[in-house]
Write a structure and sequence with these properties.
The complex is a heterodimer of chains A (871) and B (431). Chain A has 871 residues and is mostly helical. Chain A is 61% helix and 6% strand. Classes of the chains: A mainly alpha (871), B alpha/beta (431).
Amino acid sequence: MALAAAPANDRKRVKVYELKNNDWFDRGTGFCKGVLLNDEARILVSSEDDPSRQLLETKISKDDGYQKQQGTDTLIVWTEQNGTDMALSFQEAEGCGAIWEFVSEIQQRLQQINDGLSDDVIENMNPILLPPPELGNLPELENMMRAANNSPAGRDALAKFIVTADYIAKLIPLVEMAEDLESIQDLHRLCNIMKLLILLNDSAIIEYVVTDEMILGVVGALEYDPDFPCHKANHRQYLSDESKFKEVVKIEDQLIKKKIHYTYRLQYLKDVVLARILDDPTFSVLNSLIFFHQVDIVQHLQGNVNFLKELFGIFGAEEQNLQRKKDAVLFIQQCCAVAKSLQANARATLYQNFIHNGLLDVIQFALKHQDASVRVAGTDILVALIDHDALMVRGYIFKAINEKTKPLTDTLIELLLVEVDLGVKAQMADAIKVLLDPNANSASIEAIGRTNSDFLAKVRGGISAIPQTDSFIQNFYDESAKKLFQPLKDLEGRKSMDDLTIQEVSLYSHLVEVLCFFIRQHSFRSKYFILSEGLASRVAQLMLCPEKHLKLTSLKYFRTCIGLHDEFHNRQIIQNRLFDPILNILFETMPRDNLLNSACLELFEFIKRENIKAIIIHLVETYREKLQTITYVDTFQNLILRYDQMHEPATTQEMDNSFTTQESDTPVRNSGSVNCGRWQGLKDADAEEEAYFNGSDNEEDDENLPNAVKPVMNGASPVRPLVNYPDDEGDEDAMDILSSSGPTVSSTQSPSPSSSASKQDQESPATSPAARDQTPQPTNPAQTPLERLSEKRRRDDDEEDELAKISTQNSKRRSSASSNASATSTAITHGHMLRRKKTINSGKDGGGAPKKMAISIGVKSGGGESNGEGE
Amino acid sequence: MSSGGSDLDKAIQQLRACRPIPENQVRELCYKARELLIEEGNVVGVDAPVTICGDIHGQFHDLMELFRVGGDVPDTNYLFMGDFVDRGFYSLESFLLLLCLKVRYPDRITLIRGNHESRQITTVYGFYDECLRKYGSANVWRYCCEVFDYLALGALVTGTATNLEPSEAPFADPSSQASMPGLDQDIEIETLNSNGEIMFRFARNGEVSQPSQAASAPSSSPLVDTPSRTGPSGTGATSSSNGSRGNDGGAVLCVHGGLSPLIDTIDKIRLLDRKQEVPHEGAMCDLLWSDPDEIDGWGLSPRGAGFLFGADIVKCFNHKNDLSLIARAHQLVMEGFKEMFDSTIVTVWSAPNYCYRCGNVAAILELGEDGSNAGFVRRANGDAGRKQNSVLMERGERGREGPGRRYRVFEAAPQDSRGMPAKKPVADYFL
């Protein structure tokens, strides 16, 4: 310590500040010096008025966090041991520099000394040494372990000791001893100890406990959970049942075989034994151990030529054991499930090897299997394969077509039509969609893209333009689509729709759903196909059946068509008078408030809002009187009004335009921009024109906003989802409905990327891969200033209102930090209120409050990816 | 609909024992439920009396505890505000039991959709895995998801009573009785513990020995909402405590999450086509995802879906729609329930010790029937038809008095009533 030289102690004039209540409090002006006293370094400031008075005397320690303020060169700030923030403001930069040098040197020295010590600390001062375990010293052991568990260093030391001393092996015999003695207390202690050791979250310990030698003893101890004093679990019995392991093909490599068992045991620990008590770190350690094992296993198997030969050989003619074939399918299904988490390259090799050995035949075999569970597995494998690389699968289908063998598409279609298991049917319909989805991700494309980014850019621009996908879909419409939709076509001429079987109903709904998917995905091919097959009328025919959900599905088809703003579809609907059945549904359900009725209303609201002229003209000219009778909502009166306005002299139209600034004749895809507030929603049933204008005035009052602003603001935020997710037919309108609620609303309509990035462990719909695509939305330009505005407002609140501070701060934290924090803060604010209530209750259950605090803090710290507390 | 039948009763019995029913029964159940739900509006009309429950999250044993505390179906009418599945280990049994009860007693139980009743969310937070484990295929998950698409988005409770008939229950802490309002006063709020003992009682005129009410934080306490006896003119927020008015407590909107900037009247919810996966944005998404917060107006939600909305939004919406209260779930509250914004909105949370480790208590909210007559009979559920279109109400005066609210607070089911909660292990393994 004496090595550090005290700085030349000419007098450095300095002001001493202390941070009190967020304000720097001036402790006075004086002269500063650094001194070394008894091997301790100190900074002293003596008052300039009274040199005998010390304004400051502080010992320099290694982690006080001294900082020299950048830029000014005259300010040093630090935090005292007791947590007080201090600052020295020097008159001259020179004096500041001298003291700063002194502080830095002392701190460096202290750092070195401590580093030298710290190794000793772990090895000499803090080693954990536990006596060999006996039933007699279990209470003592448990306490010692708990004590060690309280600090990170203690946990490390404990884990180290447990591993080196092979301590778990010594504990295990005690379980049986305690069982023989029927000493439930000892068993509970052993369980606690075992839990504690596993939750040390040391992967060496966790890997050790699942070995053959340890596992039964370990779970044996865990059978006696003191949280459930009247229960004993039967983990040992479950895990020792070896029949659960199905070895379809003998696995020669003993290491791999072991890993398979370890994986199973890890899973069992995670799901059953520890399910309730797992903290997030241990949860993720278990998960990653399982993952790495599985990767090893799959990698080993897929590279093992003999193994694959035997596995796929099971599907050959020689194999007589049907159960074995079934098991082999399930085995492959599991491989494919694991493969999903492999890296793209490894996964590609795996599938190549599998296909090379005959995976596609296996799929064909499985899809036609009489056992529904095997058919499910078959579709699973197929979907996994398509998900992995749709181009490749299509390539194989092409090959089959060229070789005049039955392509997979046709197999799927045939099976969909005859499938009796409704669950499998649904899955097959999904598989058909995935197979024909031009946007399906493709490993091949990604692979090409990696070497040629231009190509990738082009591909991203329009995947459907890829010749192969295109001709694949063309081929589908030429050959297979007819077979697929034949049942719909056969409806023509059917006299009664009252006698559909459950099978038929389910088939028709799947077909209509697939059709909806097609018209969205393959616009022009599907259009001409639907026209030439006359499918629109057949779908409309389904609305005559008594099954309401099928009516709904069929209605949804028309909603999808109209949502495309495609004259072609509209014309077909108009020419075939397909609004007849739709209006029938509306009238059937009319006074009631139910799903079908809402779906109808939504359709007409959409037509009205989007101002789809051709349809409005058709509707009003064909059904005017009918529409006039519908008065329980104003949608239909407004439709008529729109029609009338179209046919009124220009003056009225001009007036109209002055109100709805963005009206235009061309249909606007980006519907957000046409939503002028006053067209929206339900007003009083008698929507006379008068009332209608008044209505808009009212709304203006409600919103406190000049009406003219609205369209502009609405127009400014047409953020549309970029994601293409399976069931989004209604999405559009759900979003666009009634954006009349004022500019603040539109400005916040889409959470900005930055905000979604900050949500950390909160659950959000963005957790799925599909949603992830959506996250990088363009930030709405209108958003930022308003956001700032509201933030500013919050800050103002802070200043105004002392009492409200707690809650406002909470809300700030909530918006920036995770929901855990918000849960905690909520708990705190409310806890505060509750304590006040308790004064009335004479503190009946006063023990609750501290407990809650502790627990919510626990929750807060445990924010892992999979266990976030957002609810 | 008298869809009784012994099969259904058997299924209910089996599920009450926390044993899953076979796949084909699930399929039929879902089919029947769909027929039923398709007839419900996006906002279901519900008559008081009714018991409103928040998130369940697959905590089957705690759901049983809820029924013990709140009364069994069909003796008690229930309204569950979504999030039946995920997180807990018995999502399947919990949801199927509720669905069975719905099919068996359609007028006694109402289920609305939560943000977890969605394909995307359930694949991440456990329900999908659970179905796969318990049935070996995703079929059951598919059937359930199909039902999710048909669930209503909200409910509107009408015919509530302004004042509670005080429970004839003992006080949890007898010494506190003196400080509680007497029975001659109008009871607005009562909190009961799981033994049915009164923990707290609050009179509408606020005469509780409760110091420094005015100084309390502007949130979260049922105590601060007391309208001063002489409110500023024009607000109508006066409260007279004399005489029995037989006034009905106004309508209560129940949704899982909260309000949407795209929805300013309840009628606009009717214009949604709800049969779809929960979208990532838009009105339907907001109803299931938003949260109230101490802010002005609307704010971005840290959840990445829905919005935050402040007191002004709630008050304006309630006024415009003549609501006295919004009940919602969606957020963990340690005390089981939490009133905010002068008791214009309440969060009800019904999953005690959430995720088996949060240490919170749960609550359910009972709204009484507007008796108007002296003989107040709890649970007198006449089969009177539901009110027609109570949605289209005239704009009411400002400052409705809220309904009388009885919260029953309960803790996690005692450990012995259940086995050790755990997920079902993987049955066979190849890898």
